[in-house]
Design brief:
Layout lengths: L1 E2 L17 E3 L10 E4 L2 E4 L3 E3 L7 E6 L22 E3 L5 H16 L5 H25 L6 E3 L6 H9 L11 E9 L4 E9 L7 E5 L7 H13 L5 E5 L2 E3 H10 L6 E6 L1 E3 L1 E2 L5 E2 L16 H4 L18
Parallel strand pairs: 1-2, 7-14, 8-11, 11-12, 12-14, 13-15
Antiparallel strand pairs: 2-6, 3-4, 5-9, 6-10, 9-10, 16-17
Length: about 325
């Protein structure tokens, strides 16, 4: 990773992708597609997907994630957990069933139907019940800093709170991440920071709904390592996660000196051109069937009428 053409480069973490570059207020030079305006960064070229800013920080992944979109061949698909990379459904089949229910709800309903949205969130709550228990094991005796991206992980934050985790401004980085793709295929992640707590944290937990490409999680790990130099352990906790995304993330930080734990519910073996997670024919689904759909829409807050049967809704 480099720091926007500064003469003094940020110390590398022995990562294989040296074309990951971070631009922020400290960058002396900016690439052609960025400009500064009122202390923020704006993208000045046409954007194919995402938003143009303004951002506090921009992570440039260039074309380094293009290969992640290729389908994982059946012979290479992960079937058992590896050190630091766990799919909980391998040992708990009910998680696989719950994730399949999300696929079917997305296939047959719309998130603007509140009863369907409640059903979706209920199945996902069960999934994150298992995930939160595994995270609790990994941070036992520690006081971690939490990183649930705003909007994208608001529901996940609520699940964890409902499951007994203390997550507030004293131990939570409140930040927004926007994945942006330029017309030439360049992959960017724009970040805006609302709250970054001070503290000598030694562990961190990144919460999110899912992982397709690993750019958002990668940007979060980079920020943790920059802001909290005493960090020794980072946990990434999500529901559906592409096998290629998790393996890419694990490879990237393999020699960083950080204990990285990647905890997901179920593996995903296929994505489309826009990195949407897809089911496969081998799983019994039609081509193009989305794995979880638009999780942002499905995660919208329920009305207060659901509070008694959706206790997580009161944690939002």
């Amino acid at each position: 990773m480099t720091q926007g053409d500064k003469s003094d480069k940020i110390a590398k973490t022995n990562m294989p992708r040296e074309n990951i570059t971070v631009y922020n207020e400290a960058s002396l030079k900016l690439p052609h597609y960025l400009k500064r305006e009122l202390g923020k960064l704006l993208i000045t070229v046409p954007v194919k997907e995402g938003k143009a800013g303004p951002f506090d920080e921009v992570f440039d992944f260039a074309l380094s994630r293009d290969s992640l979109r290729s389908v994982v061949p059946v012979s290479d698909r992960i079937t058992e957990n590896k050190p630091g990379l766990e799919y909980l459904s391998f040992s708990k089949p009910e998680i696989k069933d719950n994730m399949q229910s999300l696929t079917m709800i997305n296939k047959t309903s719309k998130p603007n139907d509140e009863k369907s949205r409640f059903a979706y969130q209920s199945f996902l709550s069960d999934v994150f019940g298992h995930i939160s228990l595994r995270v609790k094991e990994l941070v036992e005796g520690e006081t971690p800093v939490f990183l649930p991206p705003l909007r994208g992980a608001d529901l996940i934050r609520a699940y964890f709170r409902n499951n007994g985790f203390k997550i507030d401004r004293s131990n939570t980085v409140d930040y927004e991440l926007k994945r942006t793709k330029l017309e030439d295929g360049t992959f960017l992640v724009g970040a805006n920071y609302v709250n970054i707590p001070e503290g000598d944290f030694t562990s961190a937990v990144i919460l999110d709904d899912c992982i397709a490409s690993d750019v958002s999680a990668s940007a979060s790990v980079h920020k943790i390592m920059e802001k909290y130099p005493k960090i020794k352990k980072i946990i990434v906790a999500v529901s559906a996660a592409s096998q290629r995304g998790l393996e890419s993330l694990q490879q990237e930080f393999a020699d960083s000196g950080i204990e990285l734990y990647l905890i997901a519910a179920t593996p995903v073996f296929e994505m489309n051109e826009d990195f949407y997670l897809l089911r496969t024919a081998e799983e019994g689904f039609d081509q193009g069937t989305q794995y979880v759909g638009d999780m942002g829409a499905w995660a919208e807050k329920l009305s207060d009428d659901f509070n008694k049967i959706a206790p997580w809704n009161m944690q939002r």
